[in-house]
Amino acid sequence: MIQLAMVNAYHLRVVLNIAITEIIKPKNYTESVDACPNYVYEALEIKGGTYEWPVWIESFILYSFYIGYSISHIPGGWLADKFGAKHVMGTCILVSSILNLLYPLAISKGGYTAAIVLRTFVGLSQGPLLPTITTFIQCWVPIKERALLVSIAFGGSTLGAVTGNVFSGMIIKRTQSWPMAFYIWGIFGMVWYSFYMFMVYSKPRTHPFITEEELQMLDKQVEYRKSFKVPWVEILKSLPVWALVAGQFVHNYIFFTVMTDLPKYLKEILKVNVENNGIATALPFLALWISQIIFAYFADYIVNKNIISVLKARKLFTAFSAVVPASVLVLVVYIGCNRTLVITLYTMALFLVGPFFSGMKVNLNDVTIHYGGTIAAIVNCIASTTGVWGPLVVGLLTPNSSLEEWHRVFFIMLGVAISLSIFYCVFASAERQKWDYLDDEIDEN
C-alpha cells in the first residue's frame, strides 16, 4: 500500500508536466528561433482550453509544487511520529487527489494564478510522504526484512513516474482532453484511499485484524522508537549530515529537472506530440528503476567481498551517480535534432543515476540509528528546493528554446554535480556519530 501511495503521488505530480504541453499554446516559430526546423509539432484539438502564457509563467507553475513540498517535510515527519503515520499519509493522498480533480476548473476560472496556488498546495500535501514512510518502516518492518521492503516502498516513486508519464500522454491524446488526465488520476487516488483506510494502521497493536502470532513476532523483532529529545544543534553542526544534504541536493537537481523539463524539451525543441512525449519521458525513469536493483546487488557484492570499504563505496556510488549522468546530459545538445539519440542519452543518464540509492541514500543509516526520520526530513526539505530553482533556471535561460540556451542549462547542472560531489566525498562518514548515542548507551560504553 505504501508503494501504491507513492505511485499515486507521482501520478498526481507528473500529470501537469505532460498536460502543460497542451495547456499552453504551441510556440510560433516564425517569431522565434526554431532549433529543429525539420520537425513540425502535431497540434491537436484539445478540450479544456489553451492559454498564451510566457515561458517564465510556465516554469513558475511547474516549480511551485516544490515550494509547498519543501515546507511540509519536517512538520509532516513530526506529525507521523507523534500521532501515527496512517492518517498523515492518507490525508496526503486524499488532499492531493481532490486538488487534482479541481485543477481544470481552477485554471478556467483563475488562469495561471489559480494554477500556481493549487500546484503549491499539491506540493504541500505531498511533502510529508517520505518521512511518513520512514515512520511506517520503523513500526512495522523487522530489520532483516527492511532492505527488500524499503526498496519496494520507495520504488513506487520511480514506477509512478513511468506510468504517470506514459498514461497521461495517452489519456490526453485519446480523449483529446487535458482535464481528463487530472480527473482519472484524482479518482485513482481516492480509490486507493478507500482501501488504505481499512487495510493500513499506524502500529501493529492498533491493527484490528492482526493475528496474535504476528503481533508477538513484531514485538520481538521491531525496536520501537524511544521517547527522547532530538539534538537539533549537534545534528545541524554535523558535517557528515551536510554531506548527506549535498549528495541528495545534486541527485534531486538532476532528477527533478529531467522529470519537470524533459517534456518541455521534447515539445519545444524536438516537437514530439503529447502521447509520444509521455512515452519518451517515461523511458529514462524505467531505466532508473531497473538500475536501482542492478547497482544495489553490485554494491552489496563488492562490500561483502571486502573489495572496497563501506565508506569508499558510499562515496564512489554517490559521486558517480551525479557527475557521470550530468556529463551525459551535456552531450544532448551536441546531438542536435536526432530524436532517437536524444531520448537514448536521457535514458542512459537516468540509468547511471541508479548507484545513488546504494550510496548516499543508504549512508544516512550509517551515521544514525535513532534520528533517521528527522535527518531524512531535514535532508529532503533542503534538497527538494532544487525543484523550485532548477526549473526556474531552465525558464530564465531558455526564453527562445534554442539549443544554445539549453547548452547553458546542462553545463550549470554539471558544475553543480562536480562541486557538491567533491563536498560529499570530503565530509561523508560511514561511522555512527557521537550525537546519536543516548545517555544510557554512553553509560554502557
TrEMBL record:
What's the source species for this entry? Phaedon cochleariae (Mustard beetle)
Instruction: Name the Pfam families on file.
Output: MFS_1 (PF07690)
In this protein, which residues make up the domain named Major facilitator superfamily (MFS) profile?
1-433
The answer to whether keyword Membrane applies is: yes
Transmembrane domains' residue ranges: 60-80, 87-106, 112-136, 148-168, 180-201, 239-259, 279-304, 316-335, 341-357, 369-389, 409-427
Broad class of the protein's primary localization:
membrane
Which subcellular locations apply to this protein? Membrane
Report how it sits in the membrane: Multi-pass membrane protein
What is the protein named? Major facilitator superfamily (MFS) profile domain-containing protein
Q: Which InterPro entries match?
A: MFS, MFS_dom, MFS_Na/Anion_cotransporter, MFS_trans_sf
Q: Which keywords describe this protein according to UniProt?
A: Membrane, Symport, Transmembrane, Transmembrane helix, Transport
Q: Name one GO molecular function term.
A: symporter activity
User: Mind listing the GO biological process terms from this record?
Assistant: monoatomic anion transport
CC annotations in GO: membrane
